[in-house]
From TrEMBL:
SMART domains, per database record: FCD, HTH_GNTR
Protein known as: GntR family transcriptional regulator
Domain HTH gntR-type: 13-80
Keyword Iron tagged: no
Listed GO MF terms: DNA binding; DNA-binding transcription factor activity
InterPro entries per record: GntR_C (IPR011711), TF_FadR/GntR_C (IPR008920), Tscrpt_reg_HTH_GntR (IPR000524), WH-like_DNA-bd_sf (IPR036388), WH_DNA-bd_sf (IPR036390)
Amino acid sequence: MIVSPPLHKDGTATVGDALLQTVRFDIIRGQLLPNQRLRLEKMREAYGASVTTLREMLNRLVAEGFVVAEGQRGFEVAAISMAELRELAEMRTMLECHALDRSISLGSLEWEAGVVSAHHMLHSVENGLIGGETSAVETWVQYDWNFHSATVAACDMPALIATHTNIFGRYIRYHLLALDFRGAAVARDHEKLRDLVISRQIDPAVTLLKAHIRAGMDHIIASGKIPA
């Protein structure tokens, strides 16, 4: 999942926020593995940032739940577990269902167009995966985020959306560690959700979303790649 960093008034990302985005995404996509020690000198060479900037960035990732501070030992990538996956799935369900309810109630015609556009791109990638293009799984995860984000984009609660973005990112990390697409069923879910959302059917859309998240969690667990 790629989330744009805050910008200066001239439209450029701050160095610290751009670095935060890069390292967060490297954790989400498994470039930095669970429990991996984050040695500041090696990170300085890899990311081209000062130790001070790296330390500040890592402390922010600690607050977000992607990194763990080990006292005098420094930092390491947060571990994964079945218990956390289940907790994140439950948190995502609560936050996203409420945001979806409000978004459907408040969304404009432009919001509907955004949902349809995001689904069109997701659908194209899903058709490729169903046809055997297994190399596109990481792209699918990105477009899956884009679609679900579009469905809740009209929600008028910024704090809820910010929290949902964090939880979704941590949840997607498990998807990318499993690196598996669950087939035509998920594509059908997305198509149905699109139709329910733009036809403003709140209760059926929320019911489908709950089942969709649960099925995704069960698929990740079935991969056998998540420790107990």
